[in-house]
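Today's session is about reading a structure prediction critically. Students often jump straight to the picture, but the first step is always the sequence itself: look for stretches that repeat, for charged clusters, for runs of hydrophobic residues. Only then move on to the predicted structure, which in these notes is written as discrete structure tokens rather than atom positions. Here is the chain we will use throughout the hour.
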Amino acid sequence: MSDTNRLMTVGDIVRLNARSIPDKLALVSESERLSYDDVNRRTNRLAHALLGAGIGHGDRVAVLGYNTADYFCLYFATAKIGAILLPLNFWHRAEEHRHIIENGEPSLILRQAKFADVIAEALGDRPMRVVEFPVAGEAPGPDWQAFMAGAPDSEPDIKAEPDWIHMILYTSGTTGRPKGAMLSNARSVMDGQAMAGALGIRQNDIFANYFPPFHVGNWDHQKLFVLAGATVVLSAQFEPGRVLDLIASEKVSVILTVPTMLNALLTHEKFKATDKSSVRLLYYGAYDPSGILDRAADAFGAREGRIEMAHCYGLTEAGTFATLCRPYEVFENWGSIGRAIPGVELALLDDDGHRVARGEHGEICLRGPQMSGYWRNPDATAEMMRGGWLHTGDVGVMNERGFLWIVDRKKDMIRSGGHNVYSKEVEDAIAQHPAVADNAVIGLDDPVYEEMVCAVLVLAPGHAPGPELAADIQAFVRQRKAGYNVPKRVEFIDALPKNAVGKIQKHLLRDRFSAPAQKPR
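Below is the predicted structure for this chain, in token form.
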């Protein structure tokens, strides 16, 4: 875009693009190809339909469904009228939806037909207007037609403000009930501009978005490309074969991924035959214990310069983007999440809130205008924002040049025999064993050591679980790490429990293996 400094709110993004590049292809969905003018007009119709339903500034609009062009435009439509988008997780059960509905108190729920029963169960006797919206490629039903009837495509006569909250995203809730992270217009525009510039996003880029719409990785990353006036190719869900087809047919130039998704692409039967020559940038987030990123670098020819790679880090509460290891820095600092992006101040703090020296472990803490706190949860906000810093819960270490590596989640650090055991470091060692395809290291209560180190392994094809292999894994770690890091217990499992974007759910492993060890079968 020509005047990014004028982007005060999220709704302004498509409005200004429609003015400056109206005919530029903005969105490719399962059944539609929309220009920026098309997107802005549909956004305006949705905004007027919401106003007609009584939705105004500060009202929450909950949405449950897969990626569609309408859902894409709702992100901008709610922002234009000062309403708050509240995406719901399509993996959640009724009880989980009930908690979020009670906490978020939406004035309206939009959902696809597949989720009619779970929403009805979650609502119970609670009065609520519910409107069904179509899945991609499906004709609108009477419910949606009535909702949209008569809505004009003119700009709504409302001036949204930069400090207004435009979205609430609920965290995964692995340490308790999900909490609603509030995202403001100013924060979304500011860190989007910073990240788009740092990554070098171009107007001629084509971005494949297959992240679930309840995840911050969906909205905040596709926003980078809309800010740049680029094209977003939207997939209803992540299906590796479908994504590979889109890369080839739509000439996708930029891919965002996490290791689990990346592994599904690399191992798919279509991968080798797929034309990937259009891809220029592969950027990624999340921890990679299995060397998937190394394999991707080889498969895409990154080391030979055929594509660039970049590593980003952030979290919902911090406005998604906090650090970036830029393409020209990645291979010199392999595994690093880089340095703070513009507008973010970063420090590693000890338990007393003091900065630690370079090379020492500390909690990654952030501050900047992006942080807005949790919706209707002042205690959780105060706990997260202690001492004026947002405490991420991640433990990191920084080298003399300021590059940062994640060591562990603070809650996953194991206190064993008076030593701090960082599970990620043990996982990295175990991942080098040829019999191991995937692994997670957890701490279990122990009457002698306080906590014992337990390794949960997924084996590579051709290897069988048993006490001999368990002993070999222990010896393998002992050769590479100090003795207190060696797992005292080794368990075998068919697959690690992971959430929708591949994050290992260690609390489920702790629940499963908190009973006495069983002999491997």
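Discussion point for the tutorial: The first helix runs from residue 10 to 20.
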